[in-house]
């Protein structure tokens, strides 16, 4: 694979609300279970080769060593036949009922290994989607899953979620040593409303990095170290993250929406600030911190009353991607998320209203929206122009339909040698 990764995704969030009684399964609400073949056809019609996609964990992982792969077998076989490369989303804002919620440490490395064994041709993974947002909405804001609202619950959820991501990466690498992990994470920034708000804003701007700091073994500042230990993380747990050495398998996937920048008041309360810095400025902060190839892994905007709002946002985001690239940062892909409209994201899935959100490249009847037409044209114009990703990736991305078992063995041997060299080099 020697070109820029233009992508979309099938929205597959599935958190629980109302004390766990209601699961907000976006694949069901957006009719993907019913129309998945048509959805894959639409991906092809747009000229898209990469799809953020994953089986619903709550229907697939039935218990310890118990799985129902029937839906995944059909869909992943069809993706491979169509030559669409999946970026596999294993855990997207929820866990099966039998696991409870994110205060439970027992997930999902077993599931990740089982998936990798069943589909050894898959190379690209997002083991746990938006770890920071998942912990924030579940355990700090009290919106999803455990619906708790405390720093202790947030730190507990965060350490278990990130540890699950790390352990999932390790398990997948035992099966597929050349696996590449695209960490889709929200890129945030907090602006102080006035001088009295500088302290709270600085604190929040440190917290926003915590999930990736732990995931990549980046030493946190003293304030964050005290915050973690004061709210339930042990020294041993912190050092577990420092001892990981998986960065050479990673792409820093970051998401940017109009709601990702926040205005902070002196009392610590926040409100959306709109687009002040924009994707390119905030991405440069994340790149400087982690020094990894980057991919814009999520964005969207409502179509709006004029019918052009989403198209304008697409072009603005693409201009930011080109700015990142022209600034010399190694950016390898871009994603409009998602393929179709979504349901109830206007309340961040907190309320089960059935409200359709016009965020997709297609509506829920699978009619193309203006932003879908604009994205199709953008891909056609830029797809063969941008430089190859091999310039910045430590491991090559191989088309899954070309990967036979014998070739996979050769790839594993080669990847294993690369990994030994990286570890030796520190």
TrEMBL record:
This is Beta-glucosidase/6-phospho-beta-glucosidase/beta-galactosidase. It comes from the Bacteria. InterPro entries: GH. Keywords: Plasmid. Gene3D superfamilies: Glycosidases. It comes from Deinococcus peraridilitoris (strain DSM 19664 / LMG 22246 / CIP 109416 / KR-200).
């Amino acid at each position: 694979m020697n070109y820029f990764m233009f992508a979309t995704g099938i929205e597959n969030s599935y958190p629980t609300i109302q004390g766990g009684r209601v699961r907000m399964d976006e694949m069901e609400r957006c009719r993907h279970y019913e129309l998945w073949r048509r959805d894959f056809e639409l991906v092809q019609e747009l000229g898209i080769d990469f799809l953020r996609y994953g089986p619903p964990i709550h229907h697939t992982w039935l218990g310890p060593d118990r799985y129902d792969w029937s839906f995944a077998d059909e869909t992943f076989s069809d993706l491979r036949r169509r030559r669409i490369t999946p970026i596999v989303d294993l855990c997207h804002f929820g866990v099966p009922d039998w696991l409870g919620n994110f205060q439970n440490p027992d997930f999902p490395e077993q599931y990740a290994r089982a998936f990798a064994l069943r589909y050894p041709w898959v190379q690209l993974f997002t083991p746990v989607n938006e770890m920071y947002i998942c912990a924030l909405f579940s355990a700090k804001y009290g919106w999803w899953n455990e619906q708790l609202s405390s720093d202790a619950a947030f730190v507990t959820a965060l350490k278990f979620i990130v540890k699950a991501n790390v352990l999932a990466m390790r398990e997948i690498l035992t099966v597929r040593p050349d696996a590449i992990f695209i960490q889709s994470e929200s890129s945030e920034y907090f602006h102080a409303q006035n001088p009295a708000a500088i302290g709270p804003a600085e604190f929040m701007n440190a917290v926003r990095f915590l999930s990736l700091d732990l995931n990549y073994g980046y030493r946190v500042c003293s304030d964050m170290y005290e915050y973690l230990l004061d709210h339930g993380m042990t020294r041993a747990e912190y050092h577990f993250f420092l001892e990981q050495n998986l960065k050479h398998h990673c792409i820093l996937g970051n998401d940017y929406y109009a709601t990702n920048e926040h205005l902070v008041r002196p009392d610590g309360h926040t409100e959306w600030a709109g687009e002040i810095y924009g994707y390119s400025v905030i991405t440069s902060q994340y790149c400087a911190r982690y020094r990894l190839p980057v991919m814009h892994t999520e964005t969207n905007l409502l179509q709006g009353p004029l019918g052009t709002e989403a198209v304008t946002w697409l072009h603005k985001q693409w201009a930011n991607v080109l700015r990142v690239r022209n600034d010399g940062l190694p950016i390898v892909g871009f994603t409009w998320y998602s393929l179709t409209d979504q349901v109830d994201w206007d309340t961040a899935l907190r309320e089960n209203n059935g409200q359709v959100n016009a965020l997709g490249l297609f509506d829920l009847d699978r009619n193309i929206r203006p932003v879908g037409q604009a994205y199709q044209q953008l891909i056609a114009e830029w797809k063969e122009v941008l430089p190859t990703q091999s310039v910045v990736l430590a491991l090559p991305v191989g088309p899954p339909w070309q990967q036979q078992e014998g070739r996979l063995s050769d790839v594993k041997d080669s990847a294993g040698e690369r990994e030994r060299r990286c570890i030796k080099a520190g």
